[in-house]
Amino acid sequence: MPKLAIDNREIEVPVGTKVIEAAERLGIMIPRFCYHPALGSVGACRVCAVKFLEGPVKGVQMSCMVDARDGMVVSTTDEEAVDFRRHVIEWLMLHHPHDCPVCDEGGHCLLQDMTVSGGHGRRRYPGKKRTHTDQDLGPLIQHEMNRCIQCYRCSRFYQEYCGYRDLGVMQSANRVYFGRQEDGTLESPFAGNITDICPTGVFTDKPSRFKGRRWDYERTPSICLNCSLGCHTVVSARYREVIRQEARFSASVNGDFICDRGRYGFFYASIPERPRQAAIDGKAVTREKALDVVRVRLERIARQSGTAAVACAGSLRSSLDTLAAIDLLSRQNGWHDPSFWMDRCVASRVKTAASRLEADTVVSLRQVELADVILVVGADPINEAPMLALAMRQAWRRGARVVVIDPRPVFLPFDVDHLPAAPEEMVRGLGVLVKRVIEREDVEQLGHEALSFYDSIPEMPLSVKDRLEAVVGMIKDSRRPIVVCGTEVVPDGAPALAADFSLLLKAKNRSPGLFYVFPGANAFGAMLLPGGQADFEDILAAVENKTVRALVLVECDPLRTFADRPRLEKALASLDMLVVMDYLGTETVKRADIFLPTTTVYESGGLFVNQEGRLQSAPPAFKGGLSIKVAGDGHHPPRIYGSGMPGADPLPARQQLAALAGSPGPVEGDAARWEWLVDYLRLRDFLPAVDDFPEDGVRVLAAAATAEHFGMDWDATLNDDRTGGERLRLVTVDRTFGTEELSGYSACLDTIVPSPVLFMHRQDAERWGRVDGEPVVLTTETGSVKVALCVVDNMRTGMLILPRHHSLDWQLLGEGPMWIAADQIQKAEHT
Amino acid sequence: MLPVEIREELQRQIIAVEHPRELAVDVMFALQDHYGYLSDVALEEAASLLGMTPLEVEELATFYTFIYREPVGKYVIHLCDSLICWMDGYASIRDYMCQKLAVKLGGTTADGLFTLLPVCCTGYCDRSPAMLINRKVYGNLTAEKIDEILEKLKAEA
């Protein structure tokens, strides 16, 4: 490993490390604009100049372009280098508008920092400054080109790193312009990152404009909850409001960036519509009064119909504390088994997947970037977990091949082999791959079950085999193959099969990886709960046969997330009592007999386990309460003296639950609660002390029960082969924007969310006489929905793909699986 | 609309190379020759022929001096303003042209005949000051010479 000296301090670094990075490891921040660890070096800005005194390189050179080599002696303080940098900064500032007082970048501006540290103070250039006309880039990004110092970070990130093609660099010389070909919203779902990486105020965060300066904010690390990846964020709060969310570096999860769904998905926490007061029958009451009423009624129901007449349901957006509280209280009080799952099949797949993640095969998001072959089965990364698409692109940039086996019209910002396959075809296809990639000798060492599994893989029809032939070759030649498996659209056997495949690849001396995509933020967390779990359908059935009389919904909105709204409405109407606790102003909240407001992750913090079993902690970002802006209604907040904070009624869900159902462990005291939670979830063996909690969290894999290997029941899978004949199979899915619950409350995303559509293959459309763009009414036994048709070529025939758009009442269509006949899709009448 | 012959010829050329992008400049010039300048319509057509986004073509179009993204006159005059020509009288040549044509640098004469633009070194330094008019170079410029050239071009128009 090369050893070099920088400013008289020695350091040894891996081969290929640039001098600028070596210096950073020593704590020496050499000035930089165009260099970024994720984007690499281009040597454009010239501001990282240092003097090489000894070694293979001599003189003033750009530290970002020079590899650290043995025997180098580098000085950052040499006069010539300092002078060089001062002149470069002066040169870069020639055209700069010097508008710091009105610039949003102020306080976190690299240009400010480098100008001061570079030693440039007095402007002596008397010439004219070049100016530009700015563009409207959409609701998320503000454009101010006069401030540009041409570091090229934005176009490199946008085009090279992310692979989107509508922002770039135009013109030449001092007219260089970074923007779109014409005004318009940026297409990339990662565009928000350019506000983080722009070293000046050219690209700034638009929703948080005029709200404060960097030094005004309370900034706290947090975890994104808008999908199962658990990317790291930094939350800026001011005046009791979450103002902005930025990407936070994580070496294991998201690297330097986050997606826009997560970045702008926090507005639910501070919007005026957020319910903050307890209510009985829709009328505001004190928290104590509401709790009293709930307690009394719960007691009566328990006396009259037994303790199991009460059921509690939570969701996957809640923190581990909340889930554990629901779990324990349900058991302690003899309630019906709690539910955290809206879809029974998804729950069982996630359970299998979580239990098959092992230390040997699990990979983190960052490790996906290092794969040389990625096999994606039943996942649509850009729509389900956008940062996964970005990580896959980095692998592709390094030469990896990516294959996607999925029925949806999958788009990824790089070249992909997409094999549109119906759910059961995915499992068969995987079977073919296993049979062709793995030799029988490789399997022998794994024992009897593995062999009988291998031997029982059924033969496939030739047509399917052909298309997979190329994939077989790819995986055979790979060193670091990664299998990505979704849990929403796949058949039940897929997660286990994916895991078995990765084990067999390991036996074949590859370094395989297994990567699942889960629904929600805390699916794995729900798996860790020791109590028995029902799913929401179980509870509904119990309500229908009158065993359950009272329902307590904790941070759960079944009117929105459960797939059979008419059935749910009937059940809700028949309840003796509906208690809802939430921080979102949902439809379900409006139906509550008693409502109790809860706190968001920004106020109470939380523990979340991501899709690779990584337990991560999000500390509270601010104390909570009604934002000063709302409390004052545009003016100074009311001059009322007293202790307490307006809008402070919301409590963490576990505390609300504790108040009405008995204490789930210690309620106060972070350390005590942590200890209790660790014991309750039997995580003691995997976790350090609370104040030692590692920044990248800790994997708690072994805590999930490990299921059997190689247990695939091929007969059951193949008999499950459902073909609809002339009918099309309807599947509801996620989209990047417009379907995820929390980000649905962000008004700034409204114009970015595409209109609701129903995807149909061109062949099926032609057969049924349907036309692209046509508004249609889709009718099932349960209800109907009006939506525009989108005819595409790159999805599986025989299917209908319906994104669960916020504004679409898809819940009226009923629970799947559903087969739709031609007459169930009619042209919509004009309304 | 691009005439079918031009479109098909360009498509033939594009298919014959490994990366369509290689021919971006050729395609842009071909469209510019047809339309008189590279209009927004021409930009979109170039993009669709090459399989590039309009932004990607715009990145190239705006980079190059001889790709015009705004309407230009029948004759585009490029005055060299680089070092040797500048030393040898560029400034007075420019002032003379501006006065004679009654335009500023960047402008087009009212009759649509001449557009006046600067250009950086064309390599005609031994015959400075020099200018290009529609890719033809004229050197050792004097006021008289300029008058002659412009008269001739007006007559031919």
Summarize the SSE layout with pairings.
The complex is a heterodimer of chains A (about 850) and B (about 160).
Chain A: E1 3-6, E2 9-12, H1 19-25, E3 49-54, E4 59-62, E5 73-75, H2 79-92, H3 110-118, E6 141-143, H4 153-161, E7 168-170, E8 177-179, H5 193-197, E9 203-205, E10 218-223, E11 232-238, E12 241-247, H6 260-263, E13 279-280, E14 283-284, H7 287-305, E15 310-313, H8 320-332, E16 336-339, H9 344-356, H10 365-368, E17 373-377, H11 381-384, H12 386-397, E18 401-405, E19 417-419, H13 423-437, H14 440-444, H15 448-455, H16 462-477, E20 481-485, H17 494-507, E21 513-516, H18 523-527, H19 536-544, E22 550-554, H20 558-561, H21 565-574, E23 577-582, H22 587-591, E24 594-597, H23 601-604, E25 606-609, E26 614-618, H24 628-632, H25 653-661, H26 670-680, E27 698-699, H27 714-719, E28 728-733, E29 757-761, H28 762-768, E30 775-779, E31 784-792, E32 799-803, E33 818-820, E34 825-827
Parallel strand pairs in A: 1-5, 15-16, 15-22, 17-18, 17-20, 18-19, 20-21, 22-23, 23-24, 28-32, 29-31
Antiparallel strand pairs in A: 1-2, 3-4, 3-5, 6-9, 7-8, 10-11, 11-12, 13-14, 13-24, 25-26, 26-27, 28-33, 29-32, 30-31, 30-34
Chain B: H1 4-16, H2 24-35, H3 40-50, H4 54-61, E1 75-80, H5 83-87, H6 90-101, E2 114-119, E3 131-133, E4 136-138, H7 143-156
Parallel strand pairs in B: 1-2
Antiparallel strand pairs in B: 1-3, 3-4
Helix pairs in contact in B: 2-3, 3-4
